[in-house]
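I hope you will forgive my troubling you with a question about protein structure. Could you please explain, in whatever detail you think fit, how the C-alpha cells follow from the sequence? Thank you for your consideration; the sequence and its C-alpha cells are set out here.
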Amino acid sequence: MSEATVIPLHGPRRDDPPLASGTDTEPRVESDFERRLAGGLAFLRRRLTGDYPVDEFGYDPDLSDHLLLPSLRPLYQRWFRVETIGLHNVPSSGGALVVANHSGTIPLDALMTAVALHDHHPARRALRMLAADLVFTLPVVGSLARKAGHTLACNPDAERLLTAGEIAGVWPEGFKGIGKPFSERYKLQRFGRGGFVSAALRTGVPIIPVSIVGAEEIYPMVGNLRTLARLLGLPYLPVTPTFPLLGPLGLVPLPSKWLIDFGEPIETAHYGAAAAEDPMLVFNLTDQVRETIQQTLFTLLAQRRSVWS
C-alpha cells in the first residue's frame, strides 16, 4: 500500500497562492466627499441628458431633492433650529391636507414645513403647496415653485393632488397672515370661505392642523408702505427694524427658534363627497381647524422659554 500524503492542519500549502495583506482584502471605504461628488456628477448627467421625471404639474423631484431642498436646510437646521412635534399624525401613504397658520412677512414658514416633512417624516413625504397667483407671476420664483411641485390655490388642482395620494399644503390666511403687523402676531386672520375643507371632503382625505411658532419674529413688521406697494403690484411692502434701513442686509431673517406642531388629523371620509355641498358643515369644519391651530399656538407660546432658544 502506498503511503498517504499528509496535509498539515495548520499553515498554507506550498501550492496555495500567497496570502494578501490585510489592507488589500479590506474593502475601501468611500469618503463622504467622494459620495457627494459622485452624486453631484450623476445629478449633472441626468440634467444634461433629460433623464428625470416631471409630472403634470411640472414637479421635478430630482431637482427638488438635490438642489432646492438642500438650499433650505441650513436655514432649517442652523438658523431657525426647527423642532417638530407630531409628524406621526401625517400618514405615510395616501392623500392628506396640511393646513397651517401663516406669518413672517416672507413665507418661509411654508418652506420650512416642506423640509420637515421631507427630511423627518419616516416616509419622506413631499409637500405640494397650494400657493397664491402672485407666486407664479414672479420671475424665477414662479418657475422654481412649479418645479418644486406647487400649484395654484384652487379646488380643481387641490383635488387632483389629493386624489393622486399627495400631501397638499394650504395657508388659508394668505397675505393677510404674512402681511399682518407685529402687534397682531399669533392671532389668526380669517380663513376665507373654507375651500380647502370642500376639497378634503370631496376626496375623503384627513385634514392635518399645523401650528408654527417662531416665524412671526423673523421680520417683525412695524409698518407698511401701502402706496409704494400698490405701484409695484404687491399686497404689502413691509417696514421692519432692519428693512429698508439696512438695505439688502435687512433681508436677512432674525434667527428665532422654531417649533412646528402637526396636530391630530381631522377625518373627513365618513362624511362622503356630497357633504362638500353643505355650507354649514364646511363652515363648522373650517372653524374647527382654525380654532385647533389657534389654541395650539397659545399652548406652545405659553411653554416657550425664549424667542431665540
Summary: The two ends are 89 Å apart (CA to CA). The beta strands are 83-85, 96-100, 127-131, 151-152, 167-170, 207-213, 223-224, 238-239, 259-262. The CA atoms of residues 7 and 168 lie 72 Å apart. Residues 58-218+253-303 form a domain with the Glycerol-3-phosphate (1)-acyltransferase fold (CATH 3.40.1130.10).
